[in-house]
Amino acid sequence: MPRNLRLAALALAALAATPCMAQHDHRSMVPNGCQPLGTHKVGDTGCYIVAQESMADPPAGPLYWHLDTFADARAARTARGRNGSVIEAFGQVWLLTIAEESWRPEGGRHVATIGPFTPPTDGVQTATYMVATTDATMDSLPHSHPGPEVFYVVEGAQCLETPDGTQTLQAGEGSAVAAGVPMKLYGAGDTTRRALVLVLHDAAQPAVMRNPPWKPKDLCLAQGGKTPGGAISQPEYQSAR
Question: Which partner for 194 in 132, 155, 166, 173 could form a disulfide, CB atoms 3.0-4.6 Å apart?
Answer without folding.
Answer: 155
